[in-house]
Amino acid sequence: MILYRYFRWLSLDIVLGAVIFLGFLGSLYELMIPASVYLALAITVWLIYSVDHLIDSRNIRTSDPRRVFHQKYFKQVVFFAGIVSVVGLINVYYLPVEIIRAGAILAACCILYLMLVYFLPGLWLKELLVAIGYASGIFLTPISLLDSLQTIDFILFTQLAVLALVNLLVFSVYDRESDIKNGFGSITCLLGAGSVSLIWALLSLLIGSSVYLGVVLAEKYQIIQFVYLIMTCILVGVMRFQPFFGQNERFRVVGDAIFFVPAIFLFF
């Protein structure tokens, strides 16, 4: 159990979810994605989340186990992040040129985000920026390698970004008191009780769009709509049964695990 906790505290579950989703998109678009691309995505996601946690954990008294872990092992995580960064730089040599070009722009945006978080810890747009960045990182490869983009590609991207946003907003609802205490900004802190209405509105939008698109789109896209629908329904449960999911951070375990759902359909 302790190993699983370290796995989560180091954000490796988030990394695994991103890699699984990229593999699912590769299957959907019938793309041959090189191993170097999966490695680049894993390294990028891990570095962004780890640096984010390191920034959050600085000089803050908190009972949040993830932040306590990063406070306790700050130097070790920084050292390992340095090694991972070197591996990432070497891996760039093996990436397709198209992905390097698009990735450079995304990397610049991620650095800008981390700078904003560092200098403006009360930034309330954090969830929105992370959600867009997460979806962009996963869709970067299909967007870069496809010969042409269609409207449906942007719709699928938007659905994933909204899913990631709702996931983070649900986390913020559970963490609202501690975030206010520690001076962290979030949409839920800004909107207060209104954030719950926003979450339910977005969940309804996701369910409605997945059902509708699952009916009208070609068979190729029906599976991903079913995946989105399952992920959304899980978040509905996490939001609906707060007394249960509030215990032992079950909300976070299940919320991060929704990105494993595509693994079920990876070989269809």
Shape: globular
CATH architecture classification: Orthogonal Bundle
- What CATH calls the topology is Farnesyl Diphosphate Synthase
Class based on secondary structure composition and strand pairing: mainly alpha
Tell me the count of domains: 1
List the secondary-structure elements in sequence, H or E.
HHHHHHHHHHHHH
Instruction: Please estimate the helix content.
Output: over 70%
- Biggest β-sheet description: none
Q: What average pLDDT do the residues reach?
A: 87
Oligomer: single chain
Query: Can you tell me the CATH class?
Result: Mainly Alpha
Radius of gyration based on Cα positions: 18 Å
Poorly predicted ranges: none
Number of helices: 13
N/C terminus separation: 32 Å
Percent strand: under 5%
- Can you count the beta strands? 0
Quick structural overview:
This protein is an all-alpha fold and 268 residues long.
Describe the structure.
The protein is an all-alpha fold and 268 residues long. It has a single domain (2-265), classed as Farnesyl Diphosphate Synthase. Helices cover 79% and strands 0% of the residues. The protein contains 13 helices and no strands. The radius of gyration is 18 Å and the shape is globular. 31% of the residues are buried.
Topology:
Layout lengths: L1 H8 L2 H17 L6 H23 L7 H8 L1 H19 L4 H23 L6 H20 L5 H32 L4 H5 L2 H23 L2 H22 L1 H4 L4 H8 L11
Helix pairs in contact: 2-3, 2-7, 3-4, 3-5, 3-6, 3-7, 6-7, 7-8, 8-10, 8-11, 8-13, 10-11
